[in-house]
Amino acid sequence: MKKKMSVRISSFLGKFGFWARVKFPALSSEAYLKLQFITRRKMQEKYTRYFLSQPEAPMPNVVNIETINRCNSTCAFCTANIHAEKRPFMQIDMDLYKSIIDQLADWGYRGHLTLYGNNEPLLDKRIVEMHQYAREKLPDSFIFMSTNGLLLNMEKLKAVQPYIDQLIINNYANSYKMHKNIQQIYDYCKAHPEEFEDVEIVIQMRYLQEVLTNRAGSAPNKQATEKVVKETCLLPFTDMWIMPNGKVGLCCCDNYEVTDFGDLNTMTVRECWNGPKMRKVREAIAEGRQNYSFCKHCDFIDAGFRMTLVKHILAGNQEAANRAGGDEKNRLKDRR
To answer: What is d(CA 243, CA 87) in angstroms, rounded to the nearest whole number?
Structure first.
């Protein structure tokens, strides 16, 4: 039986979709968002009701830890690009990082973990060590890494590979073509699949100047309008967002770090996630983003694996939710 390839290329609607995003960026963005909101509305509302009905907030499905708040790309849609970044430089303290991972382990966390936020993780020279620590403490978690690939080579790939389930390489470019180093990685992985049986590598072809969402008004190429968005949002229910200074923010759209739901330097992970401030904002957003000022004009919607994991949870299959996002081989893999 032929082995399934561990590396694949991904792009929404393939080359045609890439061409549409180049030629009609604003139109493509609006059409895509309308489709996503329409098709995901009922499931999102159902999950928020389920979440709030629990006596204690269910564990997060995704823990995002931004270990360094810098990026080396020029993506037009992101406030973390090298021309738009306004945050003071910050790296997470290693003792704080280990404390967060230890707390997740003590909590029995088995969901998704990514050492990534609005940044490029490979800029943190400790990133392999951090992944190794996370894997040792959280053997059953689905650990994925997302990178723009500009600093990636085979040496770095092989260094981090043992500790992750999935590597997402976002190939940001102005044409549908891989960067030279990413092409070399793709060719090597395709020629040596036996070396990458325990990790799924996804190369996403992304348009560098793409128009996406307004990210609560922070996107450089799509500012928020006065339009009020009355949809709910999954992120406060699925994701825990940890910034390098140890603060817990609302979501990935808070690149200016204006939301504050706890400080992990003085509070525990569980206290922040279950705190009254988080409960209050979830209750508000469950009834529509218009009920919380930060989200009022935000048109962000996650069109990725969070909908898949939500479906699994509502179907009573938490284990499948914990492994959502990888291929079947990685979902069933036992790392213990």
So the answer is: 11
Predicted TM-score (pTM) of the model is 0.93
DSSP 145-213: EEE--TT--HHHHHHHGGG-SEEEEEEEESSS---HHHHHHHHHHHH-GGGGTT-EEEEEEEETT----
Q: Which residue ranges of the chain lie beneath pLDDT 70?
A: 1-5, 326-336
CA–CA distance, 115 with 330 (Å, rounded to integer): 19
| Cβ-proximal residues to 44 (8 Å cutoff; 6+ apart), any chain | 231, 232, 233, 234, 307, 310
Token pair for 122 = 């490979």
Cβ-contact 155, 188 below 8 angstroms: no
Q: How many whole angstroms separate alpha carbon 234 and alpha carbon 45?
A: 9
pLDDT for the residue numbered 326: 67
Q: Residues 66-87: pLDDT tens digits?
A: 999 999 999 999 999 999 999 9
Amino acid at 145: M
